[in-house]
Amino acid sequence: MSIEFALALWFVLTFLLALGNTAGCHRLLTHRSYEAVAPVRYALTLLSAAHAGSPVLWVGVHRVHHAFADTDLDPHSTIKGFWYAHCGWLCSGARNLVPCVLFALSGFGLQFTYLVNDIRRLLGHLKPAWRAMCRDLMKERLMVVLDTPLVIPALFGLQLWAAWAIGQWWGVLWLWSLHVVQNNISWVINSACHHPAFGTRVHDAGSRACNVAWLAWLTHGDSYHGHHHLHPVSARHALEGGIDMSWLFICTLHRLGWATDVKLPAGMAMPAWAGRVKARG
Ligand SMILES: [Zn+2]
Ligand SMILES: [Zn+2]
Question: Residue ranges per domain, the chain?
Answer without folding.
Answer: 3-199
